[in-house]
């Protein structure tokens, strides 16, 4: 097990850091959804971002959802994460595979497109979830999140996300970090971090070299009073159940349910997040209709 997420501070607590290696987690998501290389990078970066942000949630009942849909061939990507840094997600088009971009990298921004929004939904068990959104800035995901934190939450941030896809389509390395300046942070420290982030190799390069997440942070924040506070194991986890799928099935409405029943067919519903199939036989559809009408 190499995946690990850590929460840390630097520069006397002026800088807040969440960073993780997510290679196994991303591999699992990419395999589940049978992703082509560009799709793997899109989904992998989103899963990593979701896991990092999930780790900032206060209660285990809270959920955080990130959505990006920019009109590109990826046809949208969604991830949902929780306070234990677990995450699940899906991409509209897992087959999307574009030529490398001008930097020779998997073209995540091109696959997502720029014609749309980054939407962040924080569900804290209140009547209404908190929804924030910003227009997509580059579609590279890390830049977009940094833009969101800076503009919507007035927290200057740097976000790095990386997924390295191997020739056999497995994920060789994945990980990322969110670095945030607390209000009133020392400007020199902010400048120093900005400078170091420009100088360091990419996250995936450091992970491929075998560096642990602690070593990566020690390297970026050398001499800056880095303090690692705690760690978690991020993981791909789907919490779907027959009950939840049944609830979604019922939500199509009584009229449509009756139509399906009268056609005498059975229905198979797949969980978007893990592709698990749930079958409803003709008789079961009849029972669902009965229970819905009985509720009224
Ligand atoms: Zn599922």
From TrEMBL:
Under oxidizing conditions two disulfide bonds are formed involving the reactive cysteines. Under reducing conditions zinc is bound to the reactive cysteines and the protein is inactive. GO terms for cellular component: cytoplasm. It is found in: Cytoplasm. The keyword Acetylation does not apply. Keywords: Chaperone, Cytoplasm, Disulfide bond, Redox-active center, Zinc. GO terms for molecular function: protein folding chaperone; unfolded protein binding. It comes from the Bacteria. GO terms for biological process: protein refolding. Disulfide bonds join 238-240, 271-274. Belongs to the HSP33 family. Redox regulated molecular chaperone. Protects both thermally unfolding and oxidatively damaged proteins from irreversible aggregation. Plays an important role in the bacterial defense system toward oxidative stress. This is 33 kDa chaperonin.
């Amino acid at each position: 097990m190499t995946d690990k997420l850590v929460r840390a501070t630097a520069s006397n607590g002026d800088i807040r850091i969440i960073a993780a290696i997510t290679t196994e987690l991303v591999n699992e998501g990419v395999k589940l959804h049978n992703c082509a290389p560009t799709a793997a990078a899109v989904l992998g970066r989103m899963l990593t971002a979701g896991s990092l942000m999930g780790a900032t949630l206060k209660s285990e009942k809270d959920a955080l959802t990130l959505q990006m849909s920019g009109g590109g061939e990826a046809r949208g990507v969604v991830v949902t994460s929780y306070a234990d840094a677990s995450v699940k997600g899906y991409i509209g088009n897992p087959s999307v595979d574009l030529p490398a971009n001008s930097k020779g990298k998997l073209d995540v921004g091109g696959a997502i497109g720029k014609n749309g929004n980054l939407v962040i939904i924080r569900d804290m068990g209140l009547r209404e979830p908190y929804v924030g959104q910003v227009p997509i800035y580059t579609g590279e995901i890390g830049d977009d999140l940094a833009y969101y934190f800076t503009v919507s939450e007035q927290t200057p941030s740097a976000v790095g996300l990386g997924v390295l896809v191997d020739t056999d389509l497995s994920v060789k390395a994945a990980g990322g970090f969110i670095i945030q300046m607390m209000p009133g942070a020392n400007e020199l420290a902010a400048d120093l971090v900005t400078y170091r982030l420009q100088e360091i190799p990419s996250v995936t390069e450091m992970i491929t070299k075998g560096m642990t997440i602690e070593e990566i942070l020690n390297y970026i924040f050398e001499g800056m009073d880095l303090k690692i506070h705690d760690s978690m194991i991020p993981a791909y986890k789907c919490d779907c159940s027959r009950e939840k799928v049944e609830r979604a099935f019922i939500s199509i409405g009584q009229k449509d349910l009756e139509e399906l029943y009268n056609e005498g067919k059975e229905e198979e519903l797949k969980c978007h997040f893990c592709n698990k199939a749930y079958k409803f036989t003709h008789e079961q559809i009849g029972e669902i209709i009965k229970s819905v009408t009985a509720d009224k």
